[in-house]
Amino acid sequence: DIQLTQSPSSLSASVGDRVTITCQASQDIRVYLNWYQQKPGKAPKLLIYDATNLKTGVPSRFSGSRSGTDFTFTISSLQPEDIATYYCQQYDNVPSITFGQGTRLEIK
Amino acid sequence: QLQLQESGSGLVKPSQTLSLTCAVSGGSMTGGGYSWGWIRQPPGKGLEWLGFIYPGGSSYYNRSLKSRVSMSLDVSKNEFSLRLNSVTAADTAIYYCATVGPYQVLSLEYWGRGTLVAVSS
């Protein structure tokens, strides 16, 4: 099965900072990677699909990129409402669809 | 905009069967190119994909659940269901239903609010 290694597991940043989370796939998954935001007590919310595509209505400070099997999720200017846990998810190898372990983002 | 709502037993005894239903509103289950999925999250832990079912009825399941899981859908009632047999305490989790898609983009766009299922005697 394809493994996703997400890092860091947690991070603390200040409002206005640029924040980066990475997700490394154990093998080539092409562009088939999505990013989600989960706030406490809520269901996850899709932010980015197919590595780089911003879902309609999601603020443009969120972005995604890909370099081979390495995927990056970026918040260009951290806002207080961005406090959440972020997950990557791959679907290259249906039915073996997997999530990363999550990154907990806190405000300093 | 699609809305999903999980329902079912919140407490299941070990070795018994967990059964949940997801009601879909705001659109048709056969339009929009969506399939229908289940995800769970043990308290304080990460997300685990359980499987999904196509509108035509074929389904894919997480191999780690082996033969314990099954999914079905009833488009006439606008709902789909999850059954998980022989549950143990490790199956205690928040269970979410979600849309899968659209079409070949297997992202989870619309989610239910989740329902906590505890496995305990």
Task: Describe the 3D structure.
The complex is a heterodimer of chains A (about 110) and B (about 120). Chain A is globular. In chain A, strand 5 (about 45-50) and strand 6 (about 55) form a beta hairpin. In chain A, the strands form 2 sheets. In chain A, strands 2, 4, 5, 6, 9, 10 and 11 form a 7-stranded mixed sheet that branches. A 4-stranded antiparallel sheet of chain A has the order 1-3-8-7, with no helix packed on it. The N and C termini of chain A lie far apart (about 35 Å). Chain A is about 0% helix and about 50% strand. Chain A is an all-beta fold and about 110 residues long. The model of chain A has no long low-confidence stretch (mean pLDDT about 95). Chain A has strands spanning about 5, 10-15, 20-25, 35-40, 45-50, 55, 60-65, 70-75, 85-90, 100, 105. By secondary structure, chain B is mainly beta. Chain B has no helices and 10 strands. Chain B has strands spanning about 5-10, 10, 20-25, 35-40, 50-55, 60, 70-75, 80-85, 95-100, 115-120. In chain B, the strands form 2 sheets. In chain B, strands 2-10-9-4-5-6 form a 6-stranded mixed sheet, with no helix packed on it. A 4-stranded antiparallel sheet of chain B has the order 1-3-8-7, with no helix packed on it. Chain B is globular and about 40 Å long. The model of chain B has no long low-confidence stretch (mean pLDDT about 95). The interface of A and B includes residues 1, 32, 36, 94 and 101 of A.
